[in-house]
Write a structure and sequence with these properties.
This protein is an all-alpha fold. Helix content is 77%, strand content 0%. The chain is built from four helices and no strands.
């Protein structure tokens, strides 16, 4: 069983955004799996290999978050979504948090922990089921599906 299971209730009714959300959930699961692998390793070489994998997945997750947020924000601007500012600020707070974690992780000041994994899962659940579910009907009315 995956750490973060995609559920049809996460679907917002816009194919591109749903695909991106599924990819983000997949990356969170990859990160969780890499974290679990580190805990199971018993040699420095194997731990170093898994840490390299974790770093790579964190980098990809951050890049993909930027890509996803820019997709949503472009749609909101194109169709003059009235909740744009609040939605964009929500994205910004997430980006700040994940960038701080990333920097601390690379500097050895932070470790990938269940606390971070729960933050990622809970933030995305709340964002999709709350913020994005409010955006989707607006975009559907504009013809996006």
């Amino acid at each position: 069983m995956a750490f973060f299971e995609w559920d049809d209730s996460y679907g917002v009714g816009i194919a591109e955004i749903d695909r991106q959300h599924q990819r983000l959930i997949g990356l969170i699961n990859e990160l969780y799996d890499a974290m679990q692998q580190v805990q199971d390793k018993n040699t420095l070489t194997s731990v170093a290999d898994e840490l390299e994998t974790m770093t790579s997945v964190i980098d990809e997750l951050i890049d993909y978050c930027y890509y996803h947020f820019s997709t949503e924000e472009e749609y909101m601007l194109e169709y003059a979504y009235p909740g744009y500012d609040k939605h964009k600020k929500n994205h910004g707070r997430f980006v700040n948090r994940i960038q701080t974690f990333h920097r601390d992780f690379e500097e050895g000041k932070a470790v990938l922990s269940m606390e971070i994994m729960h933050f990622l899962r809970n933030w995305w659940k709340e964002h999709i089921l709350g913020t994005d579910k409010k955006l989707a009907p607006f975009l559907n009315e504009k013809g996006l599906t």
